[in-house]
Amino acid sequence: MTITTTSQRGRAFLRGHEGNPLTCYLDSVNEPTIGQGFTMRSKAVRAALGKRGITKLVPGKTKITAEQSDEILLEVLAAEFEPAVVANSPADRKQHQMDASVSAIYNLGTGAMDWQWATLWRAGKIKEAAAYLGSHYNTAGGKKPAGLVRRRKEEANLFLNGNYAGVTSSKPEGEPRTATPTKTKPDPIVKEAQEILTSKGFNPGAIDGWMGEKTRAAVIAYQKAHPHLVADGVIGPATLSQLRRDAATVREVVTKGAGSALGSGALALAAGLPWGWIAAGVTVAVVGYVVYRKRDIIARWVNTWRGKEVAV
Q1: The pLDDT value given to residue 167
Q2: Rounded to an integer, what distance in angstroms lies between the CA atom of residue 54 and that of residue 99?
Q3: pLDDT single digits (tens) 86-122
Q4: What is the tens place of the pLDDT at every residue in 198-207?
Q5: Is pLDDT of 75 > 80?
Q6: Phi/psi of residue 25, each to 5°?
Q7: Spatial separation of the C-alpha atoms in residues 76 and 38, rounded to whole Å
Q8: Contacting residues for 273 by C-beta, under 8 A, at least 6 apart
Q9: Distance CA 19, CA 34 (A)
Q10: Contact, 86 vs 101, CB < 8 A?
Q11: Using only C-alpha atoms, what is the Rg of the chain?
Q12: Domain 8-161 CATH assignment equals 1.10.530.40
């Protein structure tokens, strides 16, 4: 029988990497996101959400149920991602190869079926295809995020060996970072979260990559002060995204404000205008724009200062 759809285990594997926040949040590039990586940039997602009366994703306000999230995923995979794999892979594909490929292009885009790893697969070079997938396509913004590196390696392992790493029962936030008896080494994502929490005045204890009670308490405190987060103590995609945006906000305000001041000051000076006033005005405008874009983070700062907890 020819494999044309993603298995239940394959969908659970994908969910483990995408997460499943049931309240809309802003991702690292300010894109409203909900469920298993659903954004309005996808035509299939827009259609699936529209069937459920959702025409706009509003961070902290738009909500779906776990059942709706699973239904939407099925519809989106069937409309967009599964046909791309079927059309661009050998007819004798195995279920675990189908599942790994759907996970990869769900993250990379359907065009990834034209990339080198898929070319090797079509040529019958399975080991080479897995090795290439596992060692490439893992950068974002010039960096190699630990989660993305892990995802590519786990997709490659699934593609080659049928190992559905980390497939467990679903949790709303997805990809939970909790201490488990089987954990044998620190988690780099937990360590990253601990570093950001510490810099923002939340005390997670030792920055060691282990999800202990003190780190969980710090995560909950951070979530309670944030308008778009559910306070469940899980470092899922929504919480991690907000932590990263929070860490970058001050730097963005300073660098963009200073850069605009210098640029506008130079232009004003060349034109014989009162460059000081113009530079100051442009700086205020740019900083105001950045603050508007990061208003959820500013709200978190205010809530933390006031000791206010936010219910989402």
Answers
A1: 79
A2: 28
A3: 999 999 999 999 999 999 999 999 999 999 999 999 9
A4: 998 899 999 9
A5: yes
A6: -140, 170
A7: 9
A8: none
A9: 9
A10: no
A11: 22
A12: yes
